[in-house]
Amino acid sequence: MYNISKFIHCVTNKLRFMNLSGIFLAAEKGLDPHLISQLATFVDNILDTG
Does residue 40 fall inside a structural domain? Predict the structure, then answer.
């Protein structure tokens, strides 16, 4: 779980530094709720389509 969080944090920092936008797709039912809450701290907006 830590590796995924660390990877997303690194990618989001690089995107912000380069002034670019990015989209991350995740299946909420397939992830640990604690991991989802961690990942939510790295992004500006969350779009729930379900």
Answer: no
Q: What are the pLDDT digits (tens) for 9-30?
A: 999 999 999 999 999 888 777 7
**Domain carrying residue 16:** 1-25
Domain count along the chain: 1
Q: Is the dihedral of CA 12, 14, 19, 20 positive or negative?
A: negative
| pTM exceeds cut of 0.70 | yes
pLDDT at position 49 is: 82
